[in-house]
Amino acid sequence: MLQSKKASCCGNESGTDKTGCCTPARDTKSSGCSGTSPKNESDCCTPESAKKQLLIDFLYLDLSVCERCQGTDQNLDDALADVSAVLKSAGFEVIVNKVNIITKELAIQYKFMSSPTIRVNGRDIAVDVQENSCSDCGDLCGDSVDCRVFTYEGVEYNTPPKEMIVNAILREVYGAKSEPVKSAADYVLPENLRIFFEAQERK
């Protein structure tokens, strides 16, 4: 019975070695784990396909003066600290990509809709983009600019609450994906961002 269980867990592997580990069908003479991730706690080589990645994009206009961007940055760090143990136990590698959107070209590249934005595996943590006047970014560019607000459990916030970010991460981890990722063809630079970048260029 034990051998049968090992064989079924090995999938396309060639079999098991003396320690009961699944041995790759290909030659792994140098490290014993070529084509696989590092050994797990039982010293078995873990197949590369077992790796899972969670990509988090934090896109923002400014961290020097904008309190919304600063608060979102801090809440994201706090949320990741809270769920780090869960993500590690679930076998996820977390990649955090913080991008300062300083040009129209970068906005187009990242399909940036409003500042600040957090995406988990390409999905915005909020379904809708809502904005109101942001005096910080207005002072930064010298024009009237709106920035993002977030509605969570019926309450409007200037920064996404930590709990909102945690829930978005856990939805992605446990597969409860609601909104499909929009394609690049769907993107048009929002008028609000065009005003911001052009005002900055004039300064």
Structural description of this entry:
The strands form four sheets. A four-stranded mixed sheet has the order 6-5-7-8, covered by helices on one side. A three-stranded antiparallel sheet has the order 9-10-11, with helices on one face. It contains six helices and eleven strands. A hairpin with a 5-residue loop joins strand 1 (15-16) and strand 2 (22-23). The chain is globular, with a radius of gyration of 22 Å. It has 203 residues and is of the alpha+beta class. The chain has helices at residues 2-10, 67-89, 104-109, 135-141, 162-173, 191-202, and strands spanning 15-16, 22-23, 36-39, 45-47, 52-60, 92-100, 117-120, 123-124, 130-133, 146-152, 155-157. The longest helix has 23 residues, at 67-89. The chain has one domain (52-202): Glutaredoxin, CATH 3.40.30. Residues 1-16, 18-32 and 39-49 have low confidence and may be disordered. It starts with a helix and ends with a helix. Helix 2 (67-89) packs parallel to helix 5 and helix 4 crosses helix 6.
Please give the structural blueprint:
Blueprint: H1 2-10, E1 15-16, E2 22-23, E3 36-39, E4 45-47, E5 52-60, H2 67-89, E6 92-100, H3 104-109, E7 117-120, E8 123-124, E9 130-133, H4 135-141, E10 146-152, E11 155-157, H5 162-173, H6 191-202
Parallel strand pairs: 5-6
Antiparallel strand pairs: 1-2, 3-4, 5-7, 7-8, 9-10, 10-11
Task: Summarize the structure in short.
With 203 residues, the chain is of the alpha+beta class. It has helices spanning 2-10, 67-89, 104-109, 135-141, 162-173, 191-202, and strands at residues 15-16, 22-23, 36-39, 45-47, 52-60, 92-100, 117-120, 123-124, 130-133, 146-152, 155-157.
